[in-house]
Amino acid sequence: MSQYENVTVIKKANLYFDGKVSSRTVLFADGTKKTLGIMLPGEYEFGTDAKEIMEILAGDLKVLLPGESEWISISGEGEFTVPANSKFKLQVASITDYACSYIQE
């Protein structure tokens, strides 16, 4: 899906790691939430409340998912899922464009 229809966008940015990671929140009529963002090169660790599906739209990064010992490389486009109430690490090598879906189970 290259665009979202009939949504509400929260204007204020979500900023993390001194602004090196930023996103905007998109709310859907059915109550679901996504964020659209950019990550600058660097190393980051994020925590989750809800299950997250991270869709990488463009970029070059490695992700270490909870409970795993091997990093997953994504170059260009890709996707990974992070369980609720966990932490994951990212090594971002180039500016990365992403969409994150929050899954309430």
UniProtKB/TrEMBL annotation:
Catalyzed reaction equations: uridine + phosphate = alpha-D-ribose 1-phosphate + uracil; cytidine + phosphate = cytosine + alpha-D-ribose 1-phosphate; thymidine + phosphate = 2-deoxy-alpha-D-ribose 1-phosphate + thymine; guanosine + phosphate = alpha-D-ribose 1-phosphate + guanine
UniProt entry keywords in alphabetical sequence: Glycosyltransferase, Transferase
Key word Glycosyltransferase present: yes
Matching InterPro entries: Ppnp, RmlC-like_jellyroll, RmlC_Cupin_sf
Enzyme Commission (EC) number: 2.4.2.1, 2.4.2.2
Enzyme class: transferase
Pfam families membership: Ppnp (PF06865)
Similarity section: Belongs to the nucleoside phosphorylase PpnP family.
PANTHER family: PYRIMIDINE/PURINE NUCLEOSIDE PHOSPHORYLASE, PYRIMIDINE_PURINE NUCLEOSIDE PHOSPHORYLASE
Function: Catalyzes the phosphorolysis of diverse nucleosides, yielding D-ribose 1-phosphate and the respective free bases. Can use uridine, adenosine, guanosine, cytidine, thymidine, inosine and xanthosine as substrates. Also catalyzes the reverse reactions.
Protein name (Swiss-Prot/TrEMBL): Pyrimidine/purine nucleoside phosphorylase
Species of provenance: Paenibacillus glycinis
Lineage: Bacteria, Bacillati, Bacillota, Bacilli, Bacillales
